[in-house]
Write a structure and sequence with these properties.
The complex is a heterodimer of chains A (111) and B (371). In chain A, strand 4 (65-71) and strand 5 form a beta hairpin. Helix content of chain A is 32%, strand content 29%. Chain A has helices at 31-41, 44-50, 92-104, 106-110, and strands spanning 8-14, 20-24, 57-62, 65-71, 78-84. Chain A is built from 4 helices and 5 strands. Chain B has 371 residues and is α+β, with helices and mostly antiparallel strands. In chain B, strands 6-11-7-8-9-10 form a 6-stranded antiparallel beta sheet. A 5-stranded parallel beta sheet of chain B has the order 2-1-3-4-5, with helices on both faces. A 5-stranded antiparallel beta sheet of chain B has the order 13-12-16-15-14. The two termini of chain B are 26 Å apart. In chain B, helix 6 (144-153) runs antiparallel to helix 8 (220-234) and helix 7 (188-196) crosses helix 8. Chain B has helices at residues 15-28, 41-50, 67-77, 92-100, 113-130, 144-153, 188-196, 220-234, 276-282, 309-329, 366-370, and strands at 6-11, 33-38, 55-59, 83-87, 105-108, 135-137, 158-163, 168-174, 177-183, 186-187, 202-207, 284-294, 300-304, 335-341, 345-352, 355-365. The chains are: A alpha+beta (111), B alpha+beta (371). Chain A binds chain B through residues 10, 28-29, 33-34, 36-37, 40-41, 43-44, 47-48, 50-65, 67, 82, and chain B through 308, 311-312, 314-315, 318-319, 322-323, 325-327, 329-343, 347. Strand 3 of chain A pairs antiparallel with strand 14 (335-341) of chain B.
Chain lengths: 111, 371
């Protein structure tokens, strides 16, 4: 996975069998918690299918952080990234690149 | 001579009824209404592509594409067009199906003079309501803050007009950014806060028109939060019977921090300064396709154009159950909203303790939006 940039708090990759890879970059974020969140958050996709929301990416806004979450249709692997909400110093392009590489498959080769 | 002629389109596979409609509407309206007719859905859609109409009246039972199916198509192509279903079948399933698919009224086919007068009165009423070219309403349990949130999150361009017994205000929102507000003599953030502090009233959402000046540069989230905070500070007692003016500023109205700059000067946002992406976005008009408001226990309080309310309810319930657990496990704070981006649409689910909102929007070419 990519090294963290400014404002990146934690990230995780979760397979359909719930095997999860996580990295944390900020205090208060534990690998165990990220793993649980990734597994539970992936349960949103059946809801999205029932609602016919064909989402490439979703963004969950919390008071102190954003959770960017996406599933790759080909293999069902999910990528989740927690970032800070402040835009100053945050490299949005890096985040976009991360998800772009995730969907094109390049992330799989480097992770 | 100024004429105020209106046009109605009747779609029915019964040619004799169409002829009767043409005669009756012309006769009872004193020829103030022109009547177009089509014997089927495709003919009606073709006519709508050729010229605008003020009301459309549809027979529910037609071969190939029935009236309810046609309503569904019309909701996509002509969402603002007033639609009246006419039928001899007044069954509850037909009625609910019609109203769910966007019909404003579900009426029995007129057979008497009184019946025709009722239909014509309905046409007149709906056409007059449409004439404002926007929508208006009073939302109970849904505040001004919610309306602004929805508008900004959906990146709409509108002018929100708010009226109360104390004052009248305008908030200009362009591409989801609040760029100007005026309330009495107050403008900028001062005017915005005065509007947000109005204790009660009603609003109109008007099509966007450029404001006389750009007076606000703050992010909308900040503005809305600041206005809410200031209103909380003064509690629920901002009711002054005097008009809002610089000489009579409500005690809770803050000092303006924004400055007024005429649109077009270098530090104002102008088409020439817009990026290529902005120009592309400007060619696409945001459109709200669906809106639902949920109670804290997940029941639908308000539904507009939702084809799958139960599936939406399950999604909201899922978020209500999961997101507090995320907030417990990680230092992220309370959950506010979920945004789902797809190629041509955008879904936003906002969760508050007292209610939840779900809005689905899409971007359509400006030409199509203006039809």
């Amino acid at each position: 996975m990519h090294p963290a940039g400014d404002g990146f708090l934690a990230s995780g990759l979760c397979r359909p069998d719930e095997l999860t890879l996580t990295r944390v970059f900020a205090p208060g974020f534990s690998n165990e918690a990220i793993q649980q969140v990734m597994v539970r958050a992936a349960e949103i996709f059946p809801h999205m299918e029932r609602n016919r929301f064909s989402a490439r990416k979703s963004c969950w806004t919390f008071e102190n952080a954003l959770f960017h979450f996406s599933r790759r249709p080909e293999d069902g692997i999910c990528l989740g990234v927690f970032t800070c909400r402040e835009t100053e110093g945050f490299d949005a392009a890096l985040l976009d690149q991360l998800f772009e590489e995730f969907h094109t498959g390049n992330l799989r080769k480097t992770s | 001579m100024i004429t105020n002629r209106k046009t109605a389109l009747f779609i029915d596979d019964d040619e004799s009824f169409l002829e009767l409609a043409r005669r009756a509407v012309t006769h009872y309206t004193g020829a103030r209404w022109d009547v177009l007719t089509a014997p089927n859905a495709s003919g009606g859609l073709a006519l709508l592509d050729q010229q605008p109409v003020n009301a459309i009246l549809i027979d529910i039972h037609m071969p190939v594409m029935d009236g309810v199916q046609l309503l569904s198509v019309l909701q996509n192509r002509h969402p603002l067009l007033p639609k009246i279903m006419l039928t001899g079948d007044g069954s509850e399933s037909s009625r609910s199906g019609s109203l769910r698919n966007g019909a404003e009224l579900f009426l029995t086919k007129p057979e008497t003079r009184e019946g025709w007068r009722e239909v014509i009165a309905a046409m007149e009423h709906l056409a007059d309501a449409q004439a404002g070219d926007g929508f208006r309403g009073v939302l109970r349990k849904v505040g001004l803050q919610d309306i602004l949130q929805l508008t900004c999150l959906a990146r709409h361009s509108v002018v929100l007009r708010v009226r109360s017994q104390f004052a009248e205000g305008l908030v200009y929102v362009e591409d989801g950014r609040i760029i100007h507000a005026q309330c009495g003599d107050l403008t900028g953030e001062e005017g915005f806060n005065a509007i947000m502090a109005l204790p009660r009233g009603e609003f109109d959402l008007q099509p966007f028109a450029p404001p006389p000046v750009q007076s606000i540069y703050q992010q909308w989230e900040f503005l809305v939060m600041e206005a809410a905070r200031k209103r909380d500070e003064i509690g629920e007692a901002p009711a002054t019977s005097a008009p809002v003016s610089k000489g009579h500023t409500p005690a809770h109205t803050p000092v303006a921090r924004g400055k007024e700059v005429a649109i077009g000067v270098p530090n104002a946002r102008s088409p020439s300064a817009a990026s290529a992406a902005d120009r592309v976005n400007r060619a696409l008009q945001p459109r709200v396709d669906e809106l639902l408001v949920f109670s804290p226990d997940g029941q639908v309080l308000h539904e507009w154009q939702s084809g799958a309310p139960s599936a939406r309810m399950e999604l909201i319930a899922f978020l209500r159950e999961l997101t507090p657990r995320i907030a417990e496990a990680l230092p992220v704070g309370p959950f506010d909203r979920l945004e789902i981006e797809a190629d041509r649409s955008r879904v936003i689910a906002i969760l508050k303790p007292e209610r939840a909102l779900l809005v689905r929007t899409s971007r359509i070419p400006v030409e199509a939006a203006s039809r």
